[in-house]
Amino acid sequence: MTFLDMLRTAERQNGSMLCVGLDPDPTKFPDRIKGDSNKIYDFCAAIVDATADLVSSFKPQIAYFAAHRAEGQLERLMEHMRRVAPHVPIILDAKRGDIGSTAEQYAIEAFERYGADAVTLSPFMGWDSVAPYLQHHGKGAFLLCRTSNPGGDDLQNQRLASVEGQPLLYEHVARLAQGPWNLNGQLGLVVGATYPAEIERVRELAPTLPLLIPGVGAQGGDAVATVKAGWRANADGSSAGSVIVNSSRAVLYASSGEDHAAAARQVAMQTRDTLEAAKAQSR
Question: Which are the catalytic amino acids?
Fold first, then answer.
């Protein structure tokens, strides 16, 4: 199946638009393994096992693995997710952004080495930095559009005087992703949960694209406002454009005790149910 096929299947089967981000920080691990970077796989696998039936996707952040020389543990984790949740797509959060042969190598890393179903990208270097990823049939690519960090205003909220209508940069990215760049229907957009008005604007400009929305939970984004801004229904009640709401720290570090996996499941279940209730209100 393509990434979008997998996403829709997981949304339907698990009744969820929740994405659990896998950002393993050994200093925050449960007391028994705290500070042990050799336990990254064990920690993340326990989270996956506890939440696999509650999510529409998983999103490992590659920096948290690479910083601890744990790329091998990431490869094992990807294989584990494939075994225990084959219907759940995996988004590799790498935020790559380079051109030509370098982008081709990054695409091989994401899709062949790690076996990801989708990857996050920076579109700052233009179309030729995105195109190599779309050569991998059925894989997805999420372009950074309106991110949740305060510094996003430095560029994303600036007007483009040279473009007709003088759109904000993030609006221009949304139009490109919905239109000429989306040759094979593989693109999505990253929009932060801390900006519901911008989510609504991006959805207006990109009505059919999946939106990956980080910032719910520890970063303070409002789950209900996020869904109302981004989710739209088709006539049959299905998603017109999928919404993937990411929560990382709130789920991963729900407890520092032996019950950490059970606590993660409880937070994930509460978040999933909150999101689904908001979706029902948005119909």
Answer: 95
